[in-house]
Amino acid sequence: MTIQISTPIRDEVAAALRVGDTVEITGYILCGRDAVLPKVVECVKAGRQDALGVDLRGSVIFHTAVSPAGVGPTSSNKLEIESSIEPLSQAGVKLHLGKGKIHPETVAALAREGAVYAVIPPVTALLGAKTLSQELVAFPELGMEALYRLKVERYPAIIAAAQGRSIYEL
């Protein structure tokens, strides 16, 4: 059974997700990868989250760039991306969306912060059909690696880390 999730994600929705659940995400999601996520973390740590122009509470961050070719997940275990997961979860992000195995320390941090990590198949054409709109929200100088907000409908994903467990450790 596929679980339908709407953004912003409520705490109880994130808490109910289990490793192996399949989900479809509808609503607004943020997109960022190794160039922009450290900048977002800097804003959060400096108490300047308002400068981003978006509310991170209950949000989804998709580890991707936004280009004319579409969107597709990048590896979430890149240092700049994976090191953003804990502080962004502390700032209210409930779901981190990407691809690949993340470290056990990150899985534990997600559990502490009540957030989850999901993997999405690298299927750019499918995601393009489920992307309703896109908007550049911060750091335009980074081009396709800037922070974007997408409006999506029924984005498919699989929960890969939740409740201190990882799909890669089963």
Explain how this protein is built.
The protein is of the alpha/beta class and 170 residues long. The chain has one domain (2-162): fumarase. Helix content is 25%, strand content 32%. It contains five helices and eight strands; from the N terminus they run E-H-E-H-E-H-E-H-E-H-E-E-E. The chain has helices at 11-16, 37-45, 79-90, 104-113, 124-129, and strands at 2-6, 22-32, 60-63, 95-98, 116-119, 131-138, 147-162, 165-166. A five-stranded mixed barrel has the order 2-3-4-5-7. The radius of gyration is 14 Å and the shape is globular. It starts with a strand and ends with a strand. The model has no long low-confidence stretch (mean pLDDT 93).
**CA gyration radius, whole angstroms:** 14 Å
Please give the order of strands in the largest beta sheet. 2-3-4-5-7
CATH architecture: Alpha-Beta Barrel
- How far apart are the first and last residues' alpha carbons, in Å? 20 Å
Class derived from helix and strand content: alpha/beta
Number of strands: 8
Number of domains: 1
CATH class: Alpha Beta
- Work out the helicity level: 25-40%
